[in-house]
Specification:
The chain is 66% helix and 0% strand. The protein is mainly α. It has one domain: Rhomboid-like fold.
């Protein structure tokens, strides 16, 4: 035994074990298990999801709030749920008494029983826009569409009541949800496409919502069309931003699919 090892034994120390790379060992001298392939893939997936969510924090926070309130709403008795929605609605009565509160609260509830539809719509509208123009510009666009479309649509209700076309109780109607914000984001999203595809997008979107106004003639239809137009007014936010060229995207997808085979 060398003199160096003898000093270690006298001090009650064990000689260091492990590879030259410094891999950890168990007390018995056996190497600690390294992360398996599944663990590594899960860690990589968590990292990817976190990085993706960080590119659109506002949209995902909003979607999380909607999920929580929808779960709470599902547990309420029907009568209580109607009272909550009515108090938080942006109808004429609530807008007159406490407008700021209902503008905020009405965007945190949804009358749609399935959250899946909103998860899909958020990923088709809000999230692409926020990732494209940034959180601040996205929020300005969506808030403007939400507030502006609400005022326009409830203005039509007020006129209809005044002219006798609608009954007076329409001043207390239910009006909650995030659809105006979605329509506003969709209006800005049209500028993401290169010409002439953006004009095709706008003609289809405007034509569809205008047809709903002409056939349905509800204040909600008026609000959706108004919100889309308000979103289109923020075209300056799209200047200097990267664009989508649909034919080029299709060619890239086809090339990638062929490369995999």
């Amino acid at each position: 035994m060398s003199q160096h090892q003898h000093r270690h034994r006298q001090a009650g120390e064990e000689p260091a074990t492990g590879s030259a790379t410094g891999s950890a060992t168990r007390p018995g001298g056996t190497p600690s298990p390294r992360p398996t392939g599944t663990r590594a893939r899960l860690r990589a997936a968590r990292h990817w999801v976190g990085a993706w969510v960080a590119t659109a924090p506002g949209s995902y926070i909003w979607l999380l709030i909607l999920t929580v309130t929808a779960l709470q709403f599902a547990q309420l008795p029907k009568r209580t749920a109607n009272v909550v929605l009515r108090v938080d609605s942006t109808n004429l009565s609530e807008l007159f008494h406490h407008p700021v509160a209902v503008f905020i609260l009405s965007a945190l509830w949804t009358q749609t029983p399935s959250l899946l539809s909103y998860i899909v719509l958020f990923h088709l509208s809000h999230i692409p826009v926020e990732r494209w123009v940034g959180t601040a510009r996205w929020l300005i666009t969506v808030a403007s569409a939400h507030v502006g479309a609400t005022l326009i649509s409830q203005g039509t209700v007020w006129l209809a009541i005044r002219w006798g076309a609608d009954p007076a109780h329409m001043a207390h109607t239910l009006d909650v949800g995030v659809s105006y914000g979605l329509a506003g984001a969709a209006g800005l999203l049209g500028y993401r496409f290169t010409r002439p595809w953006r004009w095709v997008y706008f003609v289809v979107a405007l034509g569809y919502l205008a047809a709903k106004v002409a056939t349905g003639q509800t204040f909600t239809d008026v609000g959706h069309l108004s919100a889309l137009v308000i979103g289109m007014l923020f075209y300056r936010f799209a200047r200097g931003r990267p664009l989508w060229d649909p034919p080029q995207l299709v060619r890239a997808l086809v090339t990638r699919a062929r490369a995999r085979h």
